[in-house]
Amino acid sequence: MQVTGLTKRFGSVTAVKAATFSVPTPQMVGIIGRSGAGKSTLLRMINHLTPATEGRIVIDGRDVLSLRGRARHDWQRDCAMIFQQFNLVPRLDVLTNVMLGRLNRHGTVRSLLKMFSREDIARALRALERLGIAEQAMQRAEELSGGQQQRVAIARALTQDPRMILADEPIASLDPMSAQIVMSSLREIHERDGLTVICNLHTLDTARTYCDRVIGMRAGEIVFDGPASAVTTDVAREIYGADESFDEGVTSTSLDDVPRAEAEAYLRPVQASA
Ligand SMILES: Nc1ncnc2c1ncn2[C@@H]1O[C@H](COP(=O)(O)OP(=O)(O)OP(=O)(O)O)[C@@H](O)[C@H]1O
């Protein structure tokens, strides 16, 4: 994916200024920056949720921003979104929520009637199993914890059979343990399925732990783009617009409190069954 000069203006506010970068497939990218830096707007433009003011996003030789109608719809299906607030249907059971990810793969009539095939059901169950929450399949989504709901949202994204996953602050509403489980899930999907994952994160330590590459945004501009290991304290100061007194701890979710192995134990060892 080659992004060139991607810009979004809301009236007099330029939320994203001429963002230019390319993402080789597959890569796990963390976008960091303080609140209002333009991270959400950038992701939303990629997925067409927010129309870009200027710029191009080229994949396989075509500019996806110029897509309309069915082609645009297909592109939105190709880049599954995950949101901070999960965006599940609270009163529907978990399995149905996950199968909703299949809807836009079918024609309008089948979608309207929510007609799911056996294959849709099996696929949704496999995704839930993979995320370690198959036992909750028949519970209403609203009965689950935040971390479980986010795993349902990831399972729904997987059943969409996407080319990439765009996650907008997926752990911002979660406790540290749930946050680790969700980030481990995204990492596992990236590694095992070879999917690109682009993830907006508030916290530096999360980006360093899970992402290969970090893009730092400040006031709408990309001010850093490099390997996660290159995000030094000085770079972090530049991204967060902070002075010498800057303490990385203020961007931390204290993930160190939870051993990564402990969090990963919550996920089913899918490799073993694959
Ligand atoms: N729909 C909108 N209308 C007007 N201004 C907007 C809109 N969406 C975002 N903005 C503005 O664009 C800028 C970037 O916002 P954006 O939400 O992309 O930042 P962010 O880095 O994702 O912040 P946060 O982490 O708080 O979500 C901000 O100044 C914001 O107020």
Give a quick precis of the structure.
The protein has 274 residues and is α/β, with parallel strands linked by helices. The protein has eleven helices and ten strands. Adenosine-5'-triphosphate binds next to β2 and α1.
Task: Please provide a written account of the structure.
Helices cover 37% and strands 22% of the residues. It is of the alpha/beta class and 274 residues long. The chain has a single domain, classed as P-loop containing nucleotide triphosphate hydrolases (Rossmann fold, 3-Layer(aba) Sandwich). A hairpin with a 2-residue loop joins strand 9 and strand 10. The protein is globular and about 55 Å long. The C terminus is likely disordered. The chain binds adenosine-5'-triphosphate.
> Strand fraction band?
15-25%
CATH class: Alpha Beta
Question: How many domain units?
Answer: 1
Proportion of helical residues: 25-40%
Count of alpha/pi helices: 11
Q: Can you tell me the overall shape? A: globular
Largest beta sheet, briefly?
A: 6 strands, mixed
Fold topology:
Blueprint: E1 2-10, E2 13-22, E3 28-32, H1 39-46, E4 54-59, E5 62-63, H2 69-78, E6 79-83, H3 94-103, H4 108-112, H5 118-130, H6 146-159, E7 164-168, H7 176-193, E8 196-201, H8 204-210, E9 213-218, E10 221-227, H9 233-240, H10 260-264, H11 270-273
Helix pairs in contact: 3-5, 3-6, 5-6, 6-7
Bound molecules: adenosine-5'-triphosphate.
